[in-house]
Design goal:
alpha+beta; globular; 13 strands; 13-stranded mixed sheet
């Protein structure tokens, strides 16, 4: 018999929720387990302002066996920004059985209706950041880059059969580093920095004044953040929380800032793609999994964020930051880059990415359902 439980928000309470994907994907060569400790802390609300709002973990069981899961909640800060009554779902996983999917989605929809929501959008990132939203719909030819989602194709069939429709697509682009047009970028970068009086520099996150850096990053994003984005610009506190979380798991950072005098005007952030190493350690860093990250060589990076303040847009600041990141990546032995994810409506970013020679190779879809 199928039944759905609302799980207690404790380590013990969400253990089945955390463990289900390991069983579902044990034969899938492309699935990469998340960083177990990092995800556990995230879902229990540590350094995660999203989960300070209403949310519930739903788990479906069939004769005592965990068979499907979903997180449902309300991002109250985002709703105030958008003027909507919108709920979200996240971290959907399910055996290949539509009845199991229906059970957890019914529970999530009923819960969100009870909170007064009129629409649900997802899957969303289970945090305030923008690193892992959507459901994979194109590009099942390999494992995802760090923090990007992965799922079997039938999940999309389940969502459409339930009544969900496409909300937005988000693109991932791939580039071999040896194909990057660095000579073209070099001349344009030098000319732009001289003409528009800005400079770019690599940020050493481990030795930086993190409070000052967080304030600078928040300032750049706040100025550059488009009004029509369905996201919240992070606060200085949000960014400090994210730094604290990521510092536990990254040994190499690729962060570039642009400055006009002492004023920050741009930021580009890349992450080393530890997914191939995480697969070897099964997502567990301790007691011995961390060794594979320390001694494994990272060959790919994911560029996940670039912002330039309005005053310095169309002045090749993005070109200069991209070149700086390329030079840093080349120096540490990186061979390939993913730029992701880019909203399908963000034409300037799409065009700028394609000018590097990168090709679109994966698509992640968010769905929506009227409640």
């Amino acid at each position: 018999m199928i039944h759905v439980e609302m799980l207690e928000k404790t380590k013990k309470g969400i253990r089945d929720f955390m463990d289900l994907p390991r069983r579902l994907y044990r034969q899938d060569p492309n699935w990469v387990p998340p960083m177990y400790g990092m995800q556990m802390k995230l879902l229990l609300g540590e350094n995660n302002p999203l989960l300070s709002g209403p949310h519930t973990f739903f788990m479906a069981y069939d004769n005592g066996r965990p068979v499907a899961r979903v997180l449902a909640g309300v991002d109250e800060r985002l709703n105030r920004r958008l003027g909507e009554l919108r709920g979200y779902i996240s971290l959907f996983e399910c055996e290949e059985n539509m009845e199991y999917a229906r059970a957890v989605l019914d529970a999530a929809a009923e819960y969100l209706r009870g909170l007064g929501m009129t629409r649900v959008v997802g899957p969303n990132t289970p945090g305030f950041d923008d690193f892992s939203k959507g459901m994979l719909v194109e590009g099942y030819d390999g494992p995802p880059m760090l923090f990007n989602p992965y799922n079997p194709p039938f999940y999309n069939d389940f969502f459409t059969a339930y009544g969900f429709a496409k909300h937005r697509d988000h693109y991932a682009y791939h580039l071999r580093l040896d194909a990057f047009p660095d000579h073209t970028y070099q001349g344009l970068s030098e000319l732009a920095q001289k003409r528009f009086k800005f400079r770019v520099q690599h940020v050493d996150l481990r030795n930086a004044d993190r409070g000052k850096l967080a304030a600078e990053v928040a300032g750049v994003i706040g100025e550059a953040f488009p009004d029509d984005w369905e996201l919240l610009p992070p606060t200085q506190s949000d960014i400090l929380d994210e730094m604290q979380s990521l510092m536990q798991y990254t040994s190499t950072d690729l962060i570039v800032m642009a400055y006009a005098g002492e004023r920050p005007v741009g930021i580009l952030v890349c992450f080393p793609d530890y997914n191939r190493l995480l697969k070897k350690s099964q997502g567990r860093l301790f007691p011995f999994g961390w060794l594979s990250l320390l001694f494994g060589k990272v060959k790919a990076v994911r560029c996940s964020m670039m912002f330039v303040t309005p005053e310095y847009q169309n002045k090749a600041v993005n070109v200069a930051m991209t070149l700086s990141a390329y030079e840093r990546a080349k120096a540490i032995g990186v061979e390939e880059v993913e730029a992701s994810t880019i909203d399908e409506t963000n034409l300037p970013s799409i065009l700028a990415t394609e000018r590097t020679g990168a090709t679109r190779y994966r698509v992640y879809r968010q769905y929506e359902l009227m409640l």
